[in-house]
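User: Teach me something about this protein's shape.
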Amino acid sequence: QVQLVESGGGLVQAGGSLRLSCAASGNIFSINAMGWYRQAPGKQRELVAVISSGGDTNYADSAKGRFTISRDNAKNSVYLQIDSLKPEDTAVYYCNAGIWESRAWGRRHFDSYWGQGTQVTVSS
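Assistant: First, the predicted structure itself:
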């Protein structure tokens, strides 16, 4: 069974930095795009950044300049470096990935998977 596990969240002062990690595990054949989303209290989940299997990146306007997404295909992992944190960055951060899972009899199943989320809290 495929799963994504995030880590790296926490409480940090404004101006600080965090590096979030997300690792995929299970019977993985390949991973397409991977991304980070966030959901602040009382708000809808929003895209932060995505990265293709080839390393092409795309950022939400609010994330340009302070957020850097990267991935390690050998480790089935995606990362989000956040610099110059602001109180408005406070949210639960979720990773997402489009994953081809290997199944019995040579079959493959594609689905979009989500991690459980990691809390980022920025104090002013």
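Now, about its shape. The chain has a mean pLDDT of 97. The CA atoms of residues 38 and 55 lie 21 Å apart. If you'd like, I can walk through any region in more detail.
User: That's plenty for now, thanks!
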